[in-house]
Structure formats: C-alpha cells, structure tokens
Amino acid sequence: MGKNSSKLQTSFSSRQTFNYPIRHMIITIIGLFFVFSMPLHEAQSIHPSQSFSFASFADHTNITFVQQDSWYGGELAVPGSNGTILLNPDPSTTISLVEANIGKMVYKDPIRFKFPKYGMVSFSTSFTFKITTTGDYPNGGSGMVFFISDYKKAPMGSYGRYFGMVSPTALNAQRFFAVEFDTRNSTNLGDVSDSHIGIDINSLESLNSSDTSPNSKNPSYYPQLFLYNNYTFTAWVDYNSSTNLIEVWMTNSSTSQRPSTTILSHKYDLSNVFNDTMFVGFSATNNVSEDGMEGHALFSWNFTIHYPIDDEHAKGTGSVLKLALIGVGVGIVAILVCCACFLIWKRNKKSKLGRNKTVRPHSGSVVISMDHSTTSVALYTLKQLKKATSNFSNDNQIGEGGYSFVYKGVLEDGTMIAVKRLKGNLKKDRREAEFLSELKVISNTRHRNLLQLQGWCCENEEALLVYNYMSKGSLDRYLYGSERGTLARDTRLRILEGVASALQYLHSGLGDCVLHRDVKAANVLLTDDFQSMLCDFGLARLISHSQADAITMTAAGTTGYIAPEVVFSGKFSDKADVYGFGVLALEVASGRPAIDRYQLNLDEVRLVEWVWNLHLSNKLIEALDSCMRLDISTAQEEQWKGVLHLALMCCNPSAESRPNMRQVCQTLDGDNVLLRQPLPRSKAWAPPPPNEMWPSASESSNSACLAPSQ
Hints:
Blueprint: E1 8-12, H1 20-41, E2 52-54, E3 63-65, E4 78-79, E5 85-88, E6 100-107, E7 111-112, E8 114-115, E9 119-120, E10 122-133, E11 143-149, E12 176-182, E13 196-201, E14 208-211, E15 232-240, E16 245-251, E17 264-267, E18 277-287, E19 294-306, H2 319-350, E20 366-370, E21 378-379, H3 382-388, E22 397-400, E23 404-410, E24 416-422, H4 431-442, E25 453-459, E26 462-468, H5 475-480, H6 489-508, E27 513-515, E28 524-526, E29 532-534, E30 541-543, E31 551-552, H7 564-569, E32 571-572, H8 574-590, H9 607-616, H10 634-650, H11 661-668
Parallel strand pairs: 21-25
Antiparallel strand pairs: 1-20, 2-19, 3-6, 4-5, 5-19, 6-18, 7-18, 8-9, 10-15, 10-19, 11-12, 11-18, 12-13, 13-14, 15-16, 16-17, 22-23, 23-24, 24-26, 25-26, 27-30, 28-29, 31-32
Helix pairs in contact: 1-2, 6-8, 6-11, 8-10
C-alpha cells in the first residue's frame, strides 16, 4: 500500500461530487468511441504482455529457473542443448548424485487472469515435451505438470509424487491449476495407473484423469500416449471462462495438428482459484529411492490469454460498412463532446466553489470521493443497495458488529452480496474515520485468503461496504456452533494455513504494516470448498515499519483473543495479531471457544490457560478435539502436537518472544526449526478474568457478518 494506496478525501456538498447527466454523457461518449473503433482494432484482442511463444528455448531470457529454499539439495531445471530445457536430468546420460530432484521453471512475469472490466479471462497453451525413462514399466518416476499457481517455489518435501506442488504434510495448502503427466501410481492420491494424465485443482487428487497404461480401456490412449515409450508428446490445454470448461488434447508427435477429440475435460470455475495474477510454468520430479530415475525435457511452449471482447463474427464485415459506421460514430461522438463541454461550463459558472474546498451546505449530505485509478472496487448508489437488501429489512440481516449491521442482498443481475452498513450517522462517534480506514486498507489488498471488497457507497450520511456473500458462514459455526465436529483434520489445517498466509501478507506484503486487530474465528469466513477468508478490517490501522515497534491505540478486539500487552498498556503491534492467531489455532485444534463460560472448572474457562496447563502436565495432545482423535495415526498426532506447540508459542505473554507470521507460515508448511524451541515449564501468566477485560469494539460481532446467521 503506502504511497500507492487509494487517495481518500471527504467533502460536503448538496449533490454528488460529479453531476450525473455529465457523467453519463461522458460514459456514453467513451462507449460510442469504443464501439465504432472496434472494426479498426478487432484483431488486437490479445494484450502483447499476455501472450508469448517459444518455438525453442535457445533464448531463455524470459524464463525463470526457480531456485528452491535451503531445505532442497537436488538438481534444478537448466537449459539443455539444441534449445531445450531439462526440468530433470536425462537418466540415459546422467547418474544422479542425489536422492531426488525437483525442477521448476516459470515465465519471467506473473500473468494477469482477472480484470475489473472482464473478470476472469480464458486462456490456451500448448507445449512439446519428452519423458525419458530407463526402467521398465512401472518403475519410472515420478512425472511432470503444467501449472498455474500463486506460488512458484516447491513446498518443503514435495519430491516425487508431489511434483514440487504440495507438501506431503499439507496436501491441500496451495492454490493452483495443473495438468499432470504422471508415471507413478500413488494410491494415497487416488491415481488410476502408473501412466495417466489428470486435471488437478488445489490438490493432486485429479478431478478427472485418463489412463494411458497397458490396462487402459481406451485403445486410442495405449500405446500412443503411453508415458513409458520415450515418445515426444505435444499437449494443448484450453480454459473457457464463459463456460468454465477445461479441455486437454494430446498427441505423440511434435508436428501434428491438435486432435479433434479431447483426452480430458472438466468444468470448474477457476475464478475461485486464481488471484489477479499467477505464475505459469512447469514442474517435474523424480524420487530415486521410492520411484526411479526419470528425465523431463521441454522443447517448445505457447501461451495466450483470450479476452471477452474478441468478436470473431465481426471479421466478415465489409470495409465500406466499416467506414460508414466509423463516420457515423465520429459524428455522434463530436456532437456529444460539444454538449458535455457546454454542460460542464454551465455547471462551473453556477458554482464558484473550488474543487479542493470543503463546504457544508444546509442539507448536510456526505460524499466521499476516491481516486478510482488506484482501485477496481465498484461504486454503488444507495438506491441500488436498498433494492438489493429489501430496504435493509430485518429478514435480510445476517450479522451485527460493534459498528455495523450486515445484510444479505441480491443485485439486479442475480449476484448474491453482503452489505456492511455502518451504524448511526457517519459523522458521529468517529464513524467517518472507521469507514475511511476500512475502505483505504481493503480497496487495494489482493490475497487469496482475504475477503475482497467488491464495492462501496457513501450517500445521505450512509456508509456501506459490499462483499461477496459467503454461504458457508464463519469458522466458529464449525468449531463450536451448529456445525461442530464436521471439519476434517486436513481441512482445519488448510484453514489455519490460509489465515496465517493472509496475516503474513498484511504484516509484510504491502510495504506498510497493516494490523488486523481482531483475529478470531468469527472473522474467518469459508468458501464452498472450505478455503479460509479473513474478513472485517473495521479495526485495521496502518503503521509505518519505520515507526516504533508498537503504537498506543484505543483497546480493540474480542475478549479471549486480546494480547496481554494490549490489556495492560494499550500497545498494539503485529505481535498482538500473532497472539490472536495463536488463540485461533488453539480453537481450531480443540474445537473450544477462547472463553467458555459454561465450564464449571475456572481453570478451563480460558482456552489458553487450559491448554497451557495440559502442556505442563505432559498431556498436550488431550487438548485435541475429541472428534479428531478418532482413528488418528501417529504421524497425524505428531503433526497436531506441532500445531498446539506453535499456538502456545504465539500466545507467549511476552510479545518479543512470539514468532512473526512468516515463521508461523513456514512452520505450518512443514519447517520444524521453530518447533525445536522448547516451551517454558513455568506457570503461564494469567490475565484478569473475562469480566475485567476492556470492552471490545466488536464484542457482539457475528462476523459471519458476511455470512448466513448460525
């Protein structure tokens, strides 16, 4: 954020900052200019930076060979001879000196897949490659993938069957789309054979796959597409954003045209997976000790983004008709420009008030203007949002926070939304500052685990924020509410990883440090596939990294999640967010709320105190939710002991002794360096009882507030 953050200012006027007829006329002019210019520019539907082609890789300056973190000791992808790229060494000419290899390469720049104007775009790619195996079927290993992901490095331990895409201890932690060419049957991933092609989304358990092994039931797949035949293959992958259809074609030649019949297809809305920009590339692995030695070479690659404005039907229009349309269009545009100039002159003549002056007319209506060049969120009218929410009816209210009500709504195009409506008059009790803070922080934050602001409105003393409606509700509902006991172990871990990633982004990914100040289960919303979305920035504040480590603020947060230093001194830093995350992690692991007033034993009311006492008694695993302890393996038990250990480290009463969110993310991703630090054996610091805590600004918040009521 920092210098690039949205410029917000408030002004008071008896009408909207920009006269509606003039605005609509200018929009019309721009629209007509675009329409009548289309015949001249119809062939330019591909943005130059969004399309590339490598007939060979003799020049690989636009390719990045991904360097892995220190845990990795194998060989990396490298340029080969004759314009090739070797993702893994050729086993026929190289004896590997290491146990396993991971080779990853990506296009040098992230590719943009989402636009404010178009939404999610379509794309197509084709590539020619060769898999070289020296062992007999099925003794190869492990395969390669074409991928589109928000993260280019290989997660820790992602050798072999994990393709450098997922950690074996967190199989669903990443967000990606991939097409796999798999030469090893991994039963734990649901593979169909030791030679198959699959479509993967956020997991290596393929959503659809084709068996190309000798056991294949399709005669066109074997032996033509048998991955052990050392053939040179060409694959084509298309995604249509209008139909959400993914299609894959494949042939065993580098010169053939694309076959008429697909080998794979699947419908999936990738807009739920992709961020605005993603890395695009290839990853290949082998794990000699488990699978065998296998080489992967890439010979060529083409990639294209297709925008919705591409109009194929217009290409048959005659040049005479084109010129006529252009002439008519230019004439209309010229007339409208003259009219707009006259109206603007007339309006300015009537009002001598400077554009930068703040005035208060008798009507007292409030307008907040935003520099829209730095944000893509939509501006709604109060009339639109009243219609969407049935005039903010009680039947549509789905949540209430300290500063706001939240309503479910439906826009005219059928889109489900959640509208956060600040309570009372915007000018009273610092509600204006609250709204500006939330809007300033959210409008330009982009992260897969942060609930994205979709729009806003400030009109007639009303301040409203518009979000996507989250039908699954909030996390507390599934931990200790109406859906208690329904979350699986791996889902809970994926939720924690998502929240940790979002907090790391807020703390260190925006230039300035953004403090959330109210991390709790009710502020974690869940998508249809149970991805976590951190929400409610109503208490967020920006502080500069160059400022002191902590700044004093009005106490805010929710009882049970507030760090000790905030309670006693009012000092709030990023480490207070870490404390809140630690409490959240304990809730996710135990299935109990931070404060459980129904517990008869006072030592068990506060979750942190109860888990700490179990640690002192060497019974830490007993804190684990009883439904998660059923049929738990030794490895899973150790994994969750690590989560509880990490959570208690985050809840250390000393802010300086807590890890930062980057360390938390690394630990959840399988790096055990932090967990080697033993927890203290002394009695933990105990804060005042819950009724003595400072009042919470969001105490009554059901930040399912953007979700259905529980």
